[in-house]
Design brief:
6-stranded antiparallel beta sheet; single chain; 14 helices; 7-stranded mixed beta sheet; binds zinc ion
Length: about 450
Amino acid sequence: MQVPAHIFREYDVRGVVESDLLPATVTALGRALGTAFRRAGATRVGVARDVRPSGDAIRDQIVEGLRSTGCDVVDYGRASTGVFYHAQATGQEQAGVVITGSHNPPEFNGFKLVLEGGSFFGEQIQELLRIIEDEDFETGEGSLSSREILEAYVADVVSKVSIDRPVRFAYDSGNGAASLGASALFAALGQKPVALFDEPDGSFPNHHPDPTIPEFLTDLRDTVLEQGLELGVAYDGDADRIGVIDERGEILWGDRLLILYARDLFERMPGAKVIHDVKCSQTLTDAVNAAGGEAVVWKTGHSLIKKKMKETGAPLAGEMSGHLFFGENWYGFDDALFATARLLAILARESRPLSELLADIPRLEATPEIRVDCSDATKFAVVDHVREHFRAIAPIVDIDGVRVQFEHGWGLVRASNTQPALVVRVEADTVERRDAYRAQVEEAIAQARRVVEV
Ligand SMILES: [Zn+2]
């Protein structure tokens, strides 16, 4: 059977509903998944979906495919990705699928996959494509039941996080999956926040649910400033990524946030390992090490970070993009609602405002994430050449593309795992040096392209 190969990506399966995720394709995906799960010894599969209107039909199709392989399906209903992960970490199901288009526009949908509590990704996803092309499906007659998962999630968070006082904050669900659980969770934690766009609506009528884009944080920032709140929190479409605004209206990116969580963690677990991805600021590495912890730089990608946490036993990890992972007294997955609860707990104990908690952390000059178009056929070879160029002249970290250490900053060049593009980021202590380093990095890319793209 032929299905579009490009929907089988590094960390998930994703596509446009009308053209890529046709009913026959989704059912075939369900059959392939059920086959892969059964061959791995998993027969009970949990299925959740986000708030997109296409989710209902896609749920029916994926469930049909899963059951046809003999997997017993448990329908969790609609849930954010974190609540789904929690059900997987604590329930009887051995594998799971959450139907979500994450932060993508309404016409998209997709699937994030879990097997035995760990991410199902990379080669495992490519294997699904092979199973479909070969029509190498298991057969059987699985059952269908349902299970409510939010209540147990809320009870578990409340048992593990205590917030000493009501914190004055606003949250913006962006009409995404956060809206399915945020109000219940915050009420149970004794909080009375201001809620923005907290009605589930997968057409995303107010703004796009992506907190890495400053434009989509404007409503939240205005609310924080107008009402004199202590902070604002925003979520992406499936609420596995967080965006935070401090009381002065400034954005705290994932790397600065992680410093707060790390310092809090070290009070209970001095010397702990903290993993962060290659895109994060040097100030994070320095702050973790200065606080007596051990910073571990790792590859970008939520599945890769979770795997590394298991391997190293690190109780905390984070990405620039706002994926934050808590393993201390929790299960190690990325969940922006849980990240909010932990942040509120930290703030509630503090007499200082959020901005002052990081006042001692230098503000370096960083570029945003720059995407440079580069074909899938050449992007890895281009990065290889750039890596060898810098290896000869400066210290480098080469676990994910190349991160070159300059005297007063660093530059990153890596191949995107999800797009035909290179990802570039540069940071330095001054704007002038940042721009000079950026020029060096861009020159190295141009040289590499001259060699590779002939
Ligand atoms: Zn997401």
